TrEMBL record:
<dbReference type="InterPro" id="IPR003598">
    <property type="entry name" value="Ig_sub2"/>
</dbReference>
<feature type="domain" description="Ig-like">
    <location>
        <begin position="132"/>
        <end position="230"/>
    </location>
</feature>
<feature type="domain" description="Ig-like">
    <location>
        <begin position="30"/>
        <end position="115"/>
    </location>
</feature>
<keyword id="KW-1003">Cell membrane</keyword>
<keyword id="KW-1015">Disulfide bond</keyword>
<dbReference type="Pfam" id="PF13927">
    <property type="entry name" value="Ig_3"/>
</dbReference>
<dbReference type="InterPro" id="IPR007110">
    <property type="entry name" value="Ig-like_dom"/>
</dbReference>
<feature type="domain" description="Ig-like">
    <location>
        <begin position="241"/>
        <end position="330"/>
    </location>
</feature>
<dbReference type="Pfam" id="PF07679">
    <property type="entry name" value="I-set"/>
</dbReference>
<keyword id="KW-0677">Repeat</keyword>
<dbReference type="InterPro" id="IPR036179">
    <property type="entry name" value="Ig-like_dom_sf"/>
</dbReference>
<feature type="signal peptide">
    <location>
        <begin position="1"/>
        <end position="20"/>
    </location>
</feature>
<dbReference type="InterPro" id="IPR003599">
    <property type="entry name" value="Ig_sub"/>
</dbReference>
<dbReference type="GO" id="GO:0043005">
    <property type="term" value="C:neuron projection"/>
</dbReference>
<keyword id="KW-0472">Membrane</keyword>
<keyword id="KW-0393">Immunoglobulin domain</keyword>
<dbReference type="GO" id="GO:0005886">
    <property type="term" value="C:plasma membrane"/>
</dbReference>
Length: 394
C-alpha cells in the first residue's frame, strides 16, 4: 500500500497544475475536518464519497482510485474517461465523488488528496453488496424417487455477502426427517423421526422416503440485501398402491342389488380390477383424480346375487411398478321376508353390514353400499343415512 501511495503522489506531482505560490503554501494550512466515511451500497445504485476540507484557499483537491492508481478528478475536472464518475463541491469545502450505477468492480479504496507539500490525503472504502441469486444449473430440479430411497436436494446461490440457504416446505408444513438420536446412552446413532420446519444448509438430505415426504420444497437464499429469492423444487415419491374399504363383510338377501366400493391411492397410477374366484369381473366404474401427485381411484361394481355362486369373496386389486395390493369383501346370504332395513356391526378386527329385505328380485330397489364423498380413510367417523340404510364407518 505504501508503494502504491508513493507512486500516486509522484503521478500527481507531475500532472498537478502549479498554481499555488510559495507564499500561499507558507501562509495557509489546509486540513481535513474529519475522515471519509466508508460507504456500502447495493450494486446498481449510486455511491457518494464525501471529503471535507478547511482553509483550502488556492490549493486543489483530487480524487483517486487507490488499487488501480487512477486519477479520477482534480478540482472541478473529471480526469477519468469513466462516464459514471462525477465531482461536485460546496463552497470549495465539501468535495463529493459520485459514482453512478455502481458495479461490483467499483469496490475498493478511494483517496481524497490536497496538493500541499508534502501532500495530505485520506481514504474511504466503498463496499458494493449484491442481492442473492440462485444458480439454477447448480441447484436441484424436480426429482422423483421410490419410497425407501434417500434423496439430497442442493441449492447454490451467489451474492455479496454470501447468502444463507434455508429450506422450507411449501405452506410451511413440517418436514418429516430422520435424525440421529440425541441421547448420550445411544451409541449406535439410530435414526429417529423428527418434525422440523426449516433447515439452514446448502444441502437437504431426506432419508428413507415415504409418501409423507412428497410435496414442494423451497430453497430460500438471503443475505440481508433485498430481495430474498427462492426456488420451488417438487419431490415426487413413488409408492405401491394402498387400498381401503369401509366394510369387510356384507349380509344381503337373494336378488337384492348392491354396489361394492374400494378406494386406492398410488404413485404412479395403478391398474385396478375386481376378481371373484380368480376370475376377472367385467364392468364396474373407476373414477380417478390426482391429489398432490397421488393417483386416487374409487372403484365400484354393482351386483345382484341370485345364486350361491354369486355369494362369497370379492377382491379389489390395484397394482403398479412398485407392487400389488388387494382387499377382500365377503358377501353372505341373509334371508328375511317381512322387514326391510340394514345395520352394520364392527369390531377391532373386522366390520360387516347386514342388508335385509324382501326376496322379490323384480321390485327391489338398489341398496348402494358406498358414498361418493368418502375419499379418505382418515376423515374420522362418518354417519351416512338414506331411506333405509344407516352406516357408521370406523
Amino acid at each position: 500500500m505504501k508503494k502504491v501511495l508513493v507512486h500516486i503522489l509522484l503521478i500527481l506531482q507531475n500532472v498537478w497544475p502549479g498554481s499555488t505560490t510559495f507564499s500561499e503554501l507558507n501562509n495557509s494550512d489546509p486540513k481535513f475536518s474529519g475522515p471519509i466515511n466508508n460507504v456500502t451500497v447495493p450494486v446498481g445504485r449510486d455511491a457518494l464519497l464525501t471529503c471535507i476540507v478547511h482553509d483550502l484557499v488556492s490549493y486543489k483537491v483530487a480524487w483517486l482510485r487507490v488499487d488501480t492508481q487512477t486519477i479520477l478528478s482534480i478540482q472541478n475536472h473529471v480526469i477519468t474517461k469513466n462516464h459514471r464518475i462525477g465531482i461536485s463541491h460546496t463552497e470549495h469545502r465539501i468535495w463529493q465523488l459520485r459514482i453512478r450505477d455502481v458495479h461490483e468492480s467499483d469496490r475498493g479504496w478511494y483517496m481524497c488528496q490536497i496538493n500541499t507539500d508534502p501532500m495530505k490525503s485520506q481514504m474511504g472504502y466503498l463496499d458494493v453488496v449484491v442481492p442473492p441469486d440462485i444458480v439454477d444449473y447448480q441447484t436441484s430440479q424436480d426429482v422423483v424417487r421410490a419410497s425407501g430411497q434417500n434423496v439430497t436436494l442442493t441449492c447454490t446461490a451467489t451474492g455479496v455477502p454470501l447468502p444463507t440457504i434455508t429450506w422450507r416446505r411449501e405452506e410451511n408444513t413440517p418436514m418429516p426427517m430422520l435424525l440421529p438420536a440425541m441421547s448420550e446412552d445411544d451409541n449406535d446413532n439410530e435414526l429417529q423421526p423428527k418434525e422440523i420446519y426449516s433447515v439452514e444448509s446448502q444441502n437437504l438430505t431426506l432419508w428413507q422416503l415415504q409418501r409423507g415426504h412428497m410435496g414442494a420444497y423451497l430453497c430460500i437464499a438471503s443475505n440481508g440485501v433485498p430481495p430474498t429469492v427462492s426456488k420451488r423444487i417438487m419431490l415426487v415419491v413413488n409408492f405401491a398402491p394402498t387400498i381401503w374399504t369401509r366394510y369387510d363383510t356384507i349380509y344381503v338377501g337373494v336378488g337384492q342389488k348392491l354396489t361394492l366400493e374400494c378406494i386406492t391411492e398410488s404413485q404412479p397410477a395403478s391398474i385396478n380390477f375386481w376378481l371373484k374366484n380368480k376370475e376377472l369381473l367385467q364392468g364396474g366404474s373407476y373414477d380417478s383424480l390426482i391429489v398432490g401427485h397421488v393417483h386416487r381411484i374409487v372403484m365400484r361394481i354393482t351386483l345382484r346375487p341370485l345364486t350361491k355362486h354369486d355369494f362369497g369373496e370379492y377382491k379389489c386389486i390395484a397394482k403398479n411398478a412398485l407392487g400389488e395390493t388387494e382387499r377382500s369383501i365377503t358377501l353372505h346370504h341373509k334371508a328375511k321376508k317381512h322387514v326391510q332395513h340394514s345395520h352394520q356391526t364392527s369390531s377391532r378386527d373386522n366390520q360387516f353390514i347386514v342388508i335385509e329385505g324382501y326376496k322379490d328380485s323384480y321390485n327391489q330397489e338398489s341398496i348402494p353400499i358406498h358414498n361418493s364423498q368418502f375419499l379418505c380413510p382418515h376423515n374420522g367417523i362418518k354417519n351416512i343415512s338414506t331411506n333405509r340404510i344407516y352406516q357408521v364407518y370406523m
